Amino acid sequence: MIKKFIRKILGKKEGANGNTEPVVLGPGQHKIDPKLVSSNALRVTQTLQDAGYEAFVVGGAVRDLLLGVKPKDFDIATNATPEQVKRLFRRAFIIGKRFQIVHVMFGQDLLEVTTFRGASQDNAPKDEHGRVLRDNNFGPQHEDAARRDFTINAMYYNPATQEVLDYHGGIEDIASKQLRIIGQPEARYREDPVRMLRVVRFAAKLQFTIEPATRAPIPVMAPLINNVPAARVFDEMLKLLMSGHALACLQQLRKEGLHHGLLPLLDVVLEQPISMKFVTLALESTDRRVMAGKGVSPGFLFASLLWHQVLEKWNAYKAAGESPIPALHLAADDVLEDQTEKLALQRRIGSDMRDIWSMQPRFERRQGKAPIKLLENPRFRAGYDFLLLRCESGELDAELGEWWTAFYEADPEQREELIANAPSGNGGAKRKRSPRRGPRSRNRGENGGGSGGSGDGGE
Ligand code: ATP
Ligand code: MG
Question: pLDDT tens digit string along 88-144?
């Protein structure tokens, strides 16, 4: 229906993927609000056009504009070469090896300017699984469009004329809320398996359905992700987790049968119900923060995703006779070593994770100077937020979290009082065995409570 209607008003025939002529929508035919286009994006397209080049807003920004959403960043596509672009702007840097692009900076704002890419060449270097390794040729706009991933990501908007150029039926797919890969799905996933993660991310974020042919090959081809350099998978996964729809993404991955094998991390995370509860809470809180425009720390996120793996190893080390604190460090080492390799976790993120984990037993020491010292720790807030998640998931007694909240918010005098009245000894753990506990403590998993509890036995 919608397709027919659009074709009718535009007088266009449906084209194959080799489309060389775009459907062009004028300002009256789409609902883009020009005010949503950033002044810097206008500056860049205007400057390029004044110098005689073609220049468009492209990709996710056009998609978002058509959906009436303010884009979070603007990518620009042009027929100017990177060198030609660079010459036009004061702060412009050519970056990238696989494919050169130009970063144009205005204050803190960064715009990516990309030269139209040509059709991939059959002789482009590929790995043994068919993944394209390097492809550096420029080409006309219609070839650039055909190389993009999904129809809704392959439209061009010219702010000067307010026209949208659509080569692959993106407008129709926006209207019917569908994610459709451009070209032959198997071939496109083979060229770049990361597109399988992207389709899930966009489906969850935009609440679009995945068109059947785009969806069908994914369960079979998912293992190809393993051949992609870990750093790239990590970047894409971080986008997924920080999209503000992380939980929906994970649920979508499950629905698509992609939670096994696509990302080893998810296999680990989604195996146990208690772990799932913890991860769900962590992602809900991350999503809330992103939606509220607050910062999210990748360290906290990954510390949450991998916590139950740490917990399991920690308990194993303790059961083997190791003292609690060294046991926790050994467990953290094991998990970080394993995941750093698989995920290409950056060193800084790894060290943030370690800080958060190793702070945990210290929350169970509530005597003497220990609580004040912990409060002064520059990473206290992250460790405390993490503790609250543990309590909320039923792993630890709620009382411990409540005590720390009171302590955190109290004045010095009240703090002394809280310390004086704190349950002595092992914090959350001991009470786990108490018959007087409320229903929350019954929720605790096998691994629960045992955590830091015994860790401060000697304090
Ligand atoms: P977001 O709003 O999450 O940034 P986006 O669509 O802008 O979404 P980017 O990763 O910023 O996503 O990529 C910009 C554009 O580059 C995409 O819209 C798409 O046209 C193209 N693109 C990105 N990654 C790929 C890929 N793996 N294969 C083909 N085209 C891609
Ligand atoms: Mg983008």
Answer: 999 999 998 768 899 999 999 999 999 999 987 777 778 888 787 776 789 999 999
Exposure of 390 by Cβ count < 10 A (0-12 exposed, 13-18 middle, 19+ buried)? buried
Domain 2-176 has CATH 3.30.460.10: yes
Q: Supply the pLDDT for residue 457.
A: 28
In SS3 terms, 282-328 reads as HHHHHHHHHHCCCCCCHHHHHHHHCHHHHHHHHHHHHHCCCCHHHHH
- Choosing from 75, 132, 141, 228 the residue with most ligand 1 atoms within 8 A of its CB, the one to mutate for a pocket test is 75
Question: Which of the residues are catalytic?
Answer: 73, 75, 149
- Are 339 and 353 spatial neighbours (Cβ–Cβ below 8 Å)? no
- 278-456 belongs to which homologous superfamily? cca-adding enzyme, domain 2 (1.10.3090.10)
Find the DSSP H helices in 17-140: 39-50, 60-66, 82-88
Q: Out of 128-132, 318-322, 342-346, which region has the weakest mean confidence (pLDDT)?
A: 342-346
**Residue ranges per domain, the chain?**
2-176, 190-258, 278-456
Residue with tokens 């790239």: 232
Sequence letter at residue 241? L
DSSP string, 220-257: HHGGGGGGS-HHHHHHHHHHHHTSS-HHHHHHHHHHTT
Environment of ion ligand 2 (residues, CB < 5 A): 60
pLDDT > 70: what percent of the chain? 84
Ligand 2 mean position, distance from CA 103 (Å): 13
Q: Which of 104, 120, 123 is nearest to 112 (CA)?
A: 104
Q: Which residues of 419-439 are buried (b: 16+ CB within 10 A; e: fewer)?
A: beebbebbbbbbbbeeeeeee
Q: Are 225 and 237 in contact (CB under 8 A)?
A: no
Residue 428 confidence class, pLDDT cut points 50, 70, 90: very low
- Ligand 1: which of 62, 63, 153 to mutate, judged by most atoms within 8 Å of the beta carbon? 153
Q: What is the DSSP letter of 12?
A: -
Give the pLDDT score at 258.
64
Whether residue 178 is predicted with pLDDT greater than 50 in this model: the reply is: yes
Measured CA to CA, the distance from residue 313 to residue 336 in angstroms comes to 12
As a whole number of angstroms, the distance between CA 235 and CA 227 comes to 15
- Report how far residue 359's alpha carbon sits from residue 390's, in angstroms, rounded to the nearest whole number: 13
